[in-house]
Amino acid sequence: MKKTLLLLIFCCLLLSACNGNKEAAFQMEPFSYTNQNGQSFGSENLKGKVWIANFIFTNCDTVCPPMTANMAALQKELKNQNLDVELVSFSVDPTIDTPDVLKKYMDKFTTNSSNWHMLTGYNQAEIEAFAREEFQTLIQKPSSSDQVIHSTSFYLINQQGEVVNSYGFQQSHFEEIVAAIRELN
């Protein structure tokens, strides 16, 4: 069973590594969840702003720690470039990832949570549907594992709430992300 799970994770990583520019932006539906501070946060807070989203979970023992470290590095780079961008990390394991757990996890990677929001406050079926419908990506939590299959992409969302592009989570994409953000501003 573990081999099957590892194969599924590998396939998801492989598929997400093949991502490229979206042919056309697609509009997101409104959402409101709970951030790492226990406060309501959602699309209303992001109206008129450029933001980057990803999917993570705190119990992840594979890609999430480097993804989160790279989101923190991207946060620093955006600040150094004087770009006003919000960062949003959606937990794909909401039963485990309470606001307090997310806050402690974030604190391992950054001391600046002013523009980074780790979200929870939904059930597993809701986040799986949200990812599929709004980001056109797969999330699946096998019943036989504590790990969750999910995208490793960073998604760029424009001021109108449209997902306009996705990027691999590696730092090598930062220059491309920054250039795309400058075009949106």
Topology overview:
Blueprint: H1 2-17, E1 21-27, E2 32-34, E3 40-42, H2 43-46, E4 50-56, H3 64-80, E5 85-91, H4 99-107, E6 116-119, H5 124-135, E7 154-157, E8 162-167, H6 174-184
Parallel strand pairs: 4-5, 5-6
Antiparallel strand pairs: 1-8, 2-3, 4-7, 7-8
How would you briefly describe this protein structure?
The chain has 185 residues and is an alpha/beta fold. It is built from 6 helices and 8 strands.
Structure description:
The structure is a single chain. The protein is an alpha/beta fold and 185 residues long. It has one domain (2-184): 3-Layer(aba) Sandwich (Glutaredoxin), CATH 3.40.30. The protein is built from 6 helices and 8 strands. The relative contact order is 0.22. Residues 3-23 have low confidence and may be disordered.
